[in-house]
Amino acid sequence: MEPTPAAPSWTAPGAHPVAPGVHRIPLPLPMDGLRAVNVYAIETADGLTLIDGGWAIAESRALLESALASIDRKVSEITRFLVTHVHRDHYTQAVTVRREFGSHVSLGLGDKPTIDLIHAEGDREDPHVEMLRRAGAPRIGTAWASYTRDATPDLDLWGYPDTWLDGDHTIALPGRDLQAIATPGHTQGHFVFADRGAGMLFAGDHVLPTITPSIGFEPVRAAQPLGDFLGSLAKVRALPDLLLLPAHGPVAGSTHARIDELLRFHEERLDLCREAIADEPATAYAVARRLPWTRHARRLDDLDLFNAALATLETHAHLDLLVARGELRATPDDDGTLYAPA
User: Which residues form a coiled coil (predicted)?
Assistant: First the structure.
Protein backbone atom coordinates (compact mmCIF):
# COMPACT_ATOMS: atom_id res chain seq x y z
CA MET A 1 0.00 0.00 0.00
CA GLU A 2 1.31 3.41 -1.00
CA PRO A 3 1.85 5.76 1.95
CA THR A 4 -0.45 8.77 2.10
CA PRO A 5 1.47 11.85 0.95
CA ALA A 6 2.05 14.38 3.69
CA ALA A 7 0.04 17.56 3.41
CA PRO A 8 2.18 20.47 2.21
CA SER A 9 3.31 22.90 4.86
CA TRP A 10 1.38 26.15 5.11
CA THR A 11 4.73 27.91 4.54
CA ALA A 12 5.21 26.38 1.05
CA PRO A 13 5.93 29.20 -1.43
CA GLY A 14 3.35 30.17 -4.02
CA ALA A 15 -0.02 31.84 -4.48
CA HIS A 16 -2.52 29.46 -2.92
CA PRO A 17 -6.18 30.08 -3.84
CA VAL A 18 -8.55 30.40 -0.90
CA ALA A 19 -11.55 31.81 -2.81
CA PRO A 20 -12.22 33.09 -6.33
CA GLY A 21 -9.83 35.98 -6.88
CA VAL A 22 -8.15 35.62 -3.46
CA HIS A 23 -4.72 34.03 -2.96
CA ARG A 24 -2.69 33.31 0.18
CA ILE A 25 1.02 34.06 -0.29
CA PRO A 26 3.35 32.92 2.53
CA LEU A 27 6.49 35.04 2.76
CA PRO A 28 9.61 34.12 4.78
CA LEU A 29 10.63 35.42 8.19
CA PRO A 30 14.31 34.52 8.61
CA MET A 31 15.46 34.19 12.23
CA ASP A 32 11.86 34.25 13.41
CA GLY A 33 10.10 31.33 15.11
CA LEU A 34 6.88 32.15 13.26
CA ARG A 35 8.56 30.94 10.03
CA ALA A 36 6.35 32.87 7.59
CA VAL A 37 3.69 35.53 7.28
CA ASN A 38 0.67 35.13 5.03
CA VAL A 39 -0.23 38.07 2.83
CA TYR A 40 -3.44 37.84 0.86
CA ALA A 41 -3.73 39.09 -2.72
CA ILE A 42 -7.22 40.15 -3.79
CA GLU A 43 -7.67 40.51 -7.54
CA THR A 44 -9.89 43.40 -8.67
CA ALA A 45 -10.60 45.22 -11.90
CA ASP A 46 -8.32 48.03 -10.69
CA GLY A 47 -5.35 45.85 -9.81
CA LEU A 48 -4.34 43.98 -6.65
CA THR A 49 -5.21 44.79 -3.05
CA LEU A 50 -2.93 43.07 -0.53
CA ILE A 51 -3.86 42.38 3.05
CA ASP A 52 -0.48 42.94 4.75
CA GLY A 53 2.81 43.42 2.95
CA GLY A 54 5.44 41.18 4.49
CA TRP A 55 8.87 42.01 5.87
CA ALA A 56 11.04 44.19 3.62
CA ILE A 57 13.89 41.75 3.01
CA ALA A 58 15.24 40.45 -0.29
CA GLU A 59 13.97 36.88 0.21
CA SER A 60 10.45 38.10 0.84
CA ARG A 61 10.41 40.39 -2.19
CA ALA A 62 11.67 37.62 -4.47
CA LEU A 63 9.01 35.18 -3.29
CA LEU A 64 6.28 37.80 -3.59
CA GLU A 65 7.30 38.42 -7.20
CA SER A 66 7.39 34.72 -8.08
CA ALA A 67 4.08 34.02 -6.34
CA LEU A 68 2.34 36.82 -8.23
CA ALA A 69 3.95 35.69 -11.48
CA SER A 70 2.35 32.27 -10.97
CA ILE A 71 -1.07 33.93 -11.31
CA ASP A 72 0.11 36.19 -14.15
CA ARG A 73 0.39 39.25 -11.96
CA LYS A 74 3.18 41.68 -11.05
CA VAL A 75 4.18 43.66 -7.98
CA SER A 76 3.58 46.83 -10.01
CA GLU A 77 -0.13 45.89 -10.14
CA ILE A 78 -0.51 46.27 -6.36
CA THR A 79 -2.62 49.38 -6.00
CA ARG A 80 -3.40 49.12 -2.29
CA PHE A 81 -2.16 47.60 0.96
CA LEU A 82 -4.50 47.14 3.89
CA VAL A 83 -2.09 46.47 6.74
CA THR A 84 -3.48 44.76 9.83
CA HIS A 85 -0.89 46.25 12.20
CA VAL A 86 2.47 47.96 12.42
CA HIS A 87 4.83 45.04 13.08
CA ARG A 88 7.69 44.79 10.60
CA ASP A 89 6.60 41.47 9.09
CA HIS A 90 3.27 43.07 8.10
CA TYR A 91 4.13 46.68 7.34
CA THR A 92 7.62 47.34 6.03
CA GLN A 93 7.39 45.71 2.60
CA ALA A 94 4.22 47.66 1.90
CA VAL A 95 6.26 50.84 2.44
CA THR A 96 9.03 49.76 0.05
CA VAL A 97 6.59 48.71 -2.69
CA ARG A 98 4.80 52.05 -2.32
CA ARG A 99 8.09 53.86 -2.88
CA GLU A 100 8.52 52.05 -6.22
CA PHE A 101 5.01 51.95 -7.58
CA GLY A 102 2.87 54.41 -5.63
CA SER A 103 0.67 51.82 -3.93
CA HIS A 104 -1.69 53.24 -1.32
CA VAL A 105 -0.98 52.06 2.25
CA SER A 106 -3.52 52.04 5.11
CA LEU A 107 -2.78 51.32 8.78
CA GLY A 108 -4.72 51.56 12.05
CA LEU A 109 -4.57 54.93 13.80
CA GLY A 110 -3.82 53.24 17.12
CA ASP A 111 -0.39 52.30 15.78
CA LYS A 112 0.57 55.92 15.13
CA PRO A 113 2.33 56.34 18.52
CA THR A 114 4.66 53.48 17.59
CA ILE A 115 5.66 55.08 14.28
CA ASP A 116 5.95 58.47 15.99
CA LEU A 117 8.37 56.92 18.48
CA ILE A 118 10.43 55.35 15.67
CA HIS A 119 10.77 58.79 14.07
CA ALA A 120 11.54 60.64 17.32
CA GLU A 121 14.99 62.23 17.35
CA GLY A 122 17.68 61.71 19.97
CA ASP A 123 19.13 58.77 21.85
CA ARG A 124 16.66 56.96 24.01
CA GLU A 125 16.41 53.69 25.86
CA ASP A 126 14.05 51.10 24.43
CA PRO A 127 10.75 51.58 26.33
CA HIS A 128 10.51 47.86 27.00
CA VAL A 129 13.48 48.14 29.37
CA GLU A 130 11.54 50.26 31.87
CA MET A 131 8.45 48.06 31.43
CA LEU A 132 10.53 45.01 32.35
CA ARG A 133 11.93 46.80 35.39
CA ARG A 134 8.42 47.68 36.56
CA ALA A 135 7.48 44.04 36.03
CA GLY A 136 10.22 43.01 38.44
CA ALA A 137 12.59 41.68 35.78
CA PRO A 138 15.66 43.98 35.93
CA ARG A 139 17.97 41.21 34.72
CA ILE A 140 15.91 40.73 31.58
CA GLY A 141 15.60 44.50 31.25
CA THR A 142 19.38 44.93 31.36
CA ALA A 143 19.86 42.18 28.78
CA TRP A 144 17.17 43.78 26.60
CA ALA A 145 18.89 47.16 26.85
CA SER A 146 22.13 45.59 25.64
CA TYR A 147 20.31 43.70 22.87
CA THR A 148 18.64 46.87 21.53
CA ARG A 149 21.35 49.46 22.29
CA ASP A 150 22.72 49.62 18.74
CA ALA A 151 19.42 48.99 16.96
CA THR A 152 18.79 51.99 14.72
CA PRO A 153 15.56 51.75 12.71
CA ASP A 154 15.78 52.31 8.99
CA LEU A 155 13.31 55.14 8.53
CA ASP A 156 12.96 54.25 4.84
CA LEU A 157 11.07 51.16 6.04
CA TRP A 158 8.90 53.03 8.54
CA GLY A 159 7.25 55.77 6.53
CA TYR A 160 3.81 56.94 7.58
CA PRO A 161 0.80 55.38 5.81
CA ASP A 162 -1.28 57.25 3.26
CA THR A 163 -4.45 56.66 5.29
CA TRP A 164 -5.06 56.01 8.98
CA LEU A 165 -7.85 53.52 9.60
CA ASP A 166 -10.04 54.89 12.36
CA GLY A 167 -13.07 53.04 13.72
CA ASP A 168 -15.17 50.39 12.06
CA HIS A 169 -16.11 51.18 8.48
CA THR A 170 -16.61 49.65 5.04
CA ILE A 171 -13.89 49.66 2.39
CA ALA A 172 -15.34 49.36 -1.10
CA LEU A 173 -13.18 47.40 -3.53
CA PRO A 174 -14.23 46.73 -7.12
CA GLY A 175 -16.48 43.69 -6.84
CA ARG A 176 -16.46 43.30 -3.04
CA ASP A 177 -16.85 45.19 0.21
CA LEU A 178 -14.58 44.67 3.18
CA GLN A 179 -15.54 45.58 6.72
CA ALA A 180 -12.55 47.18 8.45
CA ILE A 181 -12.96 46.29 12.13
CA ALA A 182 -10.80 47.81 14.86
CA THR A 183 -9.40 45.02 17.05
CA PRO A 184 -6.93 46.53 19.54
CA GLY A 185 -5.01 44.09 21.70
CA HIS A 186 -2.02 42.60 19.93
CA THR A 187 -1.29 46.22 19.01
CA GLN A 188 -3.42 49.27 19.70
CA GLY A 189 -3.99 49.85 15.99
CA HIS A 190 -4.76 46.28 14.91
CA PHE A 191 -7.53 45.85 12.32
CA VAL A 192 -9.14 42.80 10.77
CA PHE A 193 -11.00 42.82 7.46
CA ALA A 194 -14.22 40.83 7.03
CA ASP A 195 -15.58 39.87 3.62
CA ARG A 196 -19.01 38.75 4.76
CA GLY A 197 -20.19 38.22 1.19
CA ALA A 198 -17.51 35.59 0.63
CA GLY A 199 -17.59 34.34 4.22
CA MET A 200 -13.95 35.19 5.06
CA LEU A 201 -12.03 37.01 7.78
CA PHE A 202 -8.57 38.40 7.06
CA ALA A 203 -7.53 38.15 10.70
CA GLY A 204 -3.93 39.38 10.84
CA ASP A 205 -2.49 38.40 14.21
CA HIS A 206 -5.76 38.90 16.08
CA VAL A 207 -6.95 35.32 15.65
CA LEU A 208 -4.27 32.73 14.89
CA PRO A 209 -5.12 29.04 14.41
CA THR A 210 -2.37 27.34 16.41
CA ILE A 211 -0.71 29.96 18.63
CA THR A 212 -1.81 32.92 20.74
CA PRO A 213 -0.68 36.42 19.75
CA SER A 214 1.56 38.31 22.13
CA ILE A 215 -0.19 40.80 24.40
CA GLY A 216 1.37 43.78 26.16
CA PHE A 217 4.54 43.98 24.08
CA GLU A 218 4.35 47.43 22.50
CA PRO A 219 6.78 50.35 22.81
CA VAL A 220 3.83 52.59 23.71
CA ARG A 221 1.79 50.38 26.00
CA ALA A 222 -1.99 50.51 26.28
CA ALA A 223 -3.52 50.83 29.75
CA GLN A 224 -5.26 47.44 29.47
CA PRO A 225 -3.88 45.50 26.49
CA LEU A 226 -5.42 42.18 27.56
CA GLY A 227 -8.77 43.78 28.30
CA ASP A 228 -8.65 45.36 24.84
CA PHE A 229 -7.78 42.03 23.25
CA LEU A 230 -10.56 40.08 24.97
CA GLY A 231 -13.05 42.79 24.04
CA SER A 232 -11.90 42.61 20.42
CA LEU A 233 -12.27 38.82 20.42
CA ALA A 234 -15.84 39.16 21.66
CA LYS A 235 -16.51 41.77 18.97
CA VAL A 236 -15.32 39.48 16.17
CA ARG A 237 -17.11 36.50 17.76
CA ALA A 238 -20.37 38.44 17.30
CA LEU A 239 -19.89 38.32 13.50
CA PRO A 240 -21.15 35.33 11.53
CA ASP A 241 -18.84 32.32 11.61
CA LEU A 242 -16.26 32.93 8.88
CA LEU A 243 -13.34 31.20 7.20
CA LEU A 244 -10.24 32.17 9.19
CA LEU A 245 -7.47 33.61 7.04
CA PRO A 246 -4.65 34.18 9.55
CA ALA A 247 -1.32 35.95 9.18
CA HIS A 248 0.55 32.95 10.59
CA GLY A 249 -0.52 29.35 10.11
CA PRO A 250 -2.92 27.52 7.82
CA VAL A 251 -6.40 28.61 6.83
CA ALA A 252 -8.96 27.36 9.36
CA GLY A 253 -12.64 26.64 8.94
CA SER A 254 -14.24 28.52 11.85
CA THR A 255 -13.50 31.86 13.44
CA HIS A 256 -16.00 31.08 16.20
CA ALA A 257 -14.30 27.84 17.25
CA ARG A 258 -10.85 29.40 17.45
CA ILE A 259 -12.03 32.54 19.26
CA ASP A 260 -13.75 30.36 21.86
CA GLU A 261 -10.44 28.53 22.39
CA LEU A 262 -8.56 31.81 22.79
CA LEU A 263 -11.08 33.15 25.29
CA ARG A 264 -10.83 29.94 27.34
CA PHE A 265 -7.03 30.04 27.19
CA HIS A 266 -6.81 33.54 28.63
CA GLU A 267 -9.35 32.82 31.38
CA GLU A 268 -7.23 29.81 32.34
CA ARG A 269 -4.12 32.01 32.40
CA LEU A 270 -5.91 34.51 34.60
CA ASP A 271 -6.79 31.67 36.99
CA LEU A 272 -3.14 30.57 37.08
CA CYS A 273 -1.98 34.13 37.77
CA ARG A 274 -4.49 34.46 40.61
CA GLU A 275 -3.36 31.17 42.13
CA ALA A 276 0.33 32.12 41.83
CA ILE A 277 -0.05 35.02 44.27
CA ALA A 278 -2.57 33.47 46.66
CA ASP A 279 0.06 33.03 49.39
CA GLU A 280 2.25 36.12 49.04
CA PRO A 281 2.59 39.28 46.93
CA ALA A 282 4.67 38.88 43.79
CA THR A 283 5.86 40.81 40.75
CA ALA A 284 4.80 39.94 37.22
CA TYR A 285 8.22 38.36 36.64
CA ALA A 286 7.90 36.17 39.74
CA VAL A 287 4.46 35.05 38.61
CA ALA A 288 5.70 34.37 35.07
CA ARG A 289 8.41 32.09 36.49
CA ARG A 290 5.67 30.00 38.14
CA LEU A 291 3.65 29.54 34.96
CA PRO A 292 4.14 27.07 32.08
CA TRP A 293 5.02 28.53 28.67
CA THR A 294 4.38 27.22 25.14
CA ARG A 295 2.50 24.04 24.39
CA HIS A 296 5.46 22.14 25.82
CA ALA A 297 4.99 23.73 29.27
CA ARG A 298 8.51 25.17 29.37
CA ARG A 299 9.84 27.20 32.28
CA LEU A 300 10.44 30.92 31.80
CA ASP A 301 14.11 30.45 32.71
CA ASP A 302 14.47 28.11 29.73
CA LEU A 303 13.19 30.66 27.20
CA ASP A 304 15.45 32.86 25.09
CA LEU A 305 15.66 36.57 25.85
CA PHE A 306 12.99 37.66 23.39
CA ASN A 307 10.41 35.12 24.52
CA ALA A 308 11.22 35.63 28.21
CA ALA A 309 10.53 39.35 27.75
CA LEU A 310 7.25 38.60 25.93
CA ALA A 311 6.21 36.16 28.67
CA THR A 312 6.98 38.62 31.46
CA LEU A 313 5.07 41.50 29.88
CA GLU A 314 2.14 39.26 28.95
CA THR A 315 1.91 38.14 32.58
CA HIS A 316 1.99 41.82 33.56
CA ALA A 317 -1.01 42.38 31.27
CA HIS A 318 -2.92 39.51 32.89
CA LEU A 319 -2.25 40.82 36.38
CA ASP A 320 -3.27 44.36 35.42
CA LEU A 321 -6.58 43.03 34.12
CA LEU A 322 -7.20 41.25 37.44
CA VAL A 323 -6.54 44.58 39.17
CA ALA A 324 -9.04 46.28 36.86
CA ARG A 325 -11.58 43.56 37.72
CA GLY A 326 -11.09 44.26 41.41
CA GLU A 327 -9.61 40.85 42.16
CA LEU A 328 -6.04 42.02 42.86
CA ARG A 329 -4.34 45.16 44.13
CA ALA A 330 -1.08 46.57 42.79
CA THR A 331 1.52 48.35 44.94
CA PRO A 332 4.55 50.13 43.44
CA ASP A 333 7.83 48.89 44.88
CA ASP A 334 11.51 49.52 44.21
CA ASP A 335 11.83 45.95 42.91
CA GLY A 336 8.80 46.18 40.64
CA THR A 337 5.04 46.41 41.09
CA LEU A 338 3.77 43.93 43.66
CA TYR A 339 0.44 42.19 43.14
CA ALA A 340 -1.64 40.71 45.93
CA PRO A 341 -5.25 39.61 46.46
CA ALA A 342 -7.61 42.58 46.85
Answer: none
